[in-house]
Amino acid sequence: MSDSLLSFAFLVQTLRISVPYALPALGATFSERGGVVNIALEGILLIGAFATTVGTFYTNDPLIGILCGISAGLLTALLHSIISVILKADQIISGIAINLFAIGITKFSCQLIFNSSSNSARIVGLEHWNIFPDIPLLNNPFIIGTVLLIFIANFLLFKTRFGLRLRAVGEHPKAAETVGVSVSTMRHAGVLISGALTGLGGAWLALDQHSFTDGMSAGRGFIALAAMIIGKWKPTGVAAACVLFGFAESLSIHLQGSTSVAQFIQMIPYVATMVVLSGFIGRATPPAADGIPYEKENN
Amino acid sequence: MIIGKDPILVYSHFFSETLGSSYGIGQILFKATPLIFTGLSAAISFRAGLFNVGAEGQLLIGSFCTAFVGFTFYTLPSFLLIPFCLLAGIIGGAIWGAIPGILKSKFGAHEVINTIMMNFIAAGLVSYLVINIYSVPATVHTPDISVSAQLMRLDILYEPFRGSPVNVSILLALLCCLIVYILLWKTRLGYELRALGLSITAAEYGGINKSSRTIIALSMAGGLAGLVGSNFVLGYKHYFELGFSEGIGFIGIAAALLAKNNPIGIIFTSLFFGLIEYGSLTINTMVPKELSNILQAIVIILMIGITKIISRWISNLQIQTVVNEDV
User: pTM of the entire structure?
Assistant: First the structure.
């Protein structure tokens, strides 16, 4: 057991599992830094995965599939940002509705396109896409891409004017507005970035599995939210939390069969979030600052 | 429409199979019952200024506790066992609601995230309990509950409901609506909860203990969600089955909002969502039944959108009147 845990294959598996957590979690970081809670991630993942499957199925080209996934993610996020930024309605309820909608629309369309509400036809994956086919880890464009995106996100959030404005809007919208930053533009941008990244996460789910199955997001959108909280709304911290959760999940896959505690290992992210959330906000962090979720805008 | 089926045929089928037959009405009542419980659960938390997204987890734990008592104390007579089962459901759900309540009042941890997390923890826990400890081989459900724990189906009283699973628990649900109504508007506790919901600072200046009321509100919300088991476990399948609740907790939130958190209004909004749910099943041969999720989502989005637009329009009107009066 010990050497199988330390093996290279285990590491690769951990990273592979972490990708569909990391992409939506990075997205959520942008959305919440701008002050919009996005619990629609779960639904966006599902819609992104489905759109990728359909795109790849009809063109046999995973690149078009990925673009479909990202576009579908953007469109769904646009719905969320219209509801929460323009209409200023409750962000949580909007997210719940979008998640319900995603379950319905994907199964409904799956039935129409593939004649089964639970499974799509098989699609091609990324086998021919290997940049360095002989080097493990580097042969997976999604793993490399995600790592790059983490650093880009960090740069964008903390080293650019865009990032500064986005954070300002999330922490003190009124102040941001007095210096001429458009709160709603920045918030739309944050939510749309989260939609694109989450759609990309959905694309990975579909291409990795070579098909769409109903409910294949399986709570990952919420785990991503958990990772964002544990990572304290910082891309690098968020990525670390995702790898931690990926590790817990590969561990539970390894332990399945040998023990019956798999369900408890799967609970780790959720319990950890509650612990961190309780301790984190209890410690003297300035209120209203640091993108605390559920901040409602009234400028 | 989009998929080339005659919409009029689909709609007429939708309504004739639901509202047009007493069997259909029985089915709607059955689908509405759990929504009333989760709707009340959401409403009571909203009234206290909290957002309970955890009804899904609370109802899982509550229903499991209900079933557990039902199949463990097999020999008890009905008049003891049924109340015990219900009580177990309430306590199970209430504990699951109390935990985020305590975390909120002691550590300031936001209840929305914590109740979402508790949903997943509940799903893992009941999955462990059912699969590893109490399962009937080759199934994902627990053993049957004792016959004396079963709730009577209404088709015994009213013949045309024959075959539909609507049962006595709908009366329990209606009773809960009444109790919640009385609690919120006729008792001191209800007054305090509503005061917290309207303004936390004002309520605290008024001497209301915010932290204990937060815990009480979320526990009550959990207890109400925990009663969902009375419908499915005691009244219908007579066992606890994994995955029986798909989304009931979330649609309850919608039912509460559509009713503006009014306990009596929740009866009607639950019936409405029950109609969508069962109606979509009846037209499944023509249109995929997943239409129900899509319709429910559209109703919620339109509802929150339109209420916002209307309220902004009204406040604009008021501002204009004030301006005009000043002139």
Answer: 0.88
